[in-house]
From TrEMBL:
Chain segments carrying region Disordered: 247-280
Domain annotation Flavodoxin-like fold: ranges: 1-215
Protein name, per record: NADPH-dependent FMN reductase protein
Keywords: Oxidoreductase
Lineage of origin: Bacteria, Pseudomonadati, Pseudomonadota, Alphaproteobacteria, Hyphomicrobiales
Molecular functions (GO terms): NAD(P)H dehydrogenase (quinone) activity
Family affiliation: Belongs to the NAD(P)H dehydrogenase (quinone) family.
Transmembrane intervals: none
Length: 280
């Protein structure tokens, strides 16, 4: 497989840097071809602004969506963005690696998504009608490829459990897994999360490294998170609401968008549907 790892940590000697090296070594040992986009080392520009659209006339009002659409259609995106798009098209597997900062990804990585996910490439794709609402959520330019997150957290695993004060990790990562990766078509694997890493000792590092090696060895066989396909019949169009007969009665929240969320007993206990899916 061809693997693109997008790395978002400012310090190569960090724990994240060490885990990246572990992942790359394990992938290469499996015969996978690996490329890395090291955002800090490469001086990635994280904010979208006019400079991203040099062909926009100076007196034209800057509208990011329209500018992105036009630049993508006319091949006028900036070279750094085009390079990343080419890498995404090249890769069979995308890995986003980052420390959890304020319950999300570091700003530089969010900026990578905002700039690289151009209109016509990652969104605004496909037919919009009374039968389809674009090619997204399981369909789209990147369909047929896999993706996953490698995340480290200061907080404990319990803090991110279904009753933990930080909120369940599956919920916190849902906007990334579902909103950023599944949206343009990726099959999204359960994330690799290393919890409580501040002050990690050598034995703790080795345990995390071994878990990560195992995930890298099983990239091709790990079942993806079973998100519902937008155009698969589960959602009403155009409201895009889940059909009333699906999901457990009264259930709300992100887990509704998993196939199997209406199966009842298996998903209603301590473990979240994603944890149940990941354990399969
Ligand atoms: P580092 O600081 O580089 O290392 C962590 C520990 O691992 C160190 O003690 C280091 O000695 C040790 N270590 C063991 N082996 C190795 C090795 N081989 N190489 C390198 N180091 C090793 N946490 C949350 O849970 N939720 C949040 O919302 C959150 N928000 C944050 C916001 C900001 C702005 C910041 C700075 C931190 C936040 N944190 C949060 C904590 C953050 O997630 C952790 O600090 C981060 O995940 C640690 O990863 P690192 O690569 O920076 O680790």
């Amino acid at each position: 497989m061809k693997v693109l790892l997008v790395f978002a940590h400012p310090e190569p000697r960090s724990l994240n840097g060490a885990l990246r090296d572990v992942a790359m070594k394990a992938l290469e040992a499996q015969g996978h071809e690996v490329r890395v986009s090291d955002l800090y080392a490469g001086g990635w520009k994280s904010e979208i602004d006019r400079a991203d659209f040099p062909s926009l006339e100076t007196d034209t009002r800057f509208m990011p969506v329209a500018a992105s659409k036009r630049a993508f259609e006319t091949g006028a995106l900036t070279e750094d963005v085009k390079t990343e798009i080419d890498k995404l098209l090249w890769a069979d597997m995308l890995i986003l690696q980052f420390p959890l900062w304020w319950f999300s990804m570091p700003a530089i990585l969010k900026g990578w998504v905002e700039r690289v996910y151009a209109y016509g490439f990652a969104y605004g794709v496909g037919e919009h009608s009374d039968k389809r609402w674009g090619d997204r959520y399981g369909e789209g330019t990147l369909a047929g490829k896999r993706a996953m997150l490698i995340v480290t957290t200061g907080g404990w695993e319990e803090h991110y459990s279904t009753r933990g004060v930080n909120g369940p990790i599956d919920d916190l990562l849902f906007p990334i897994n579902h909103g950023i990766l599944y949206y343009p078509g990726y099959a999204v694997l359960p994330p690799f999360v290393a919890y409580r890493v501040d002050g990690l000792d050598e034995a703790g590092f080795e345990r995390a490294a071994e878990r990560l090696r195992e995930r890298m060895r099983t990239l091709e066989s790990t079942p993806p998170i079973p998100y519902r396909q937008q155009n698969g019949g589960d959602y009403l169009i155009p409201s895009m609401e889940l059909r009333p007969e699906l999901g457990e009665p009264g259930a709300t929240g992100f887990a509704l968008h998993l196939n199997g969320a209406d199966e009842g007993s298996e998903t209603s206990g301590q473990r979240s549907p994603l944890q149940v899916a990941a354990a399969r």
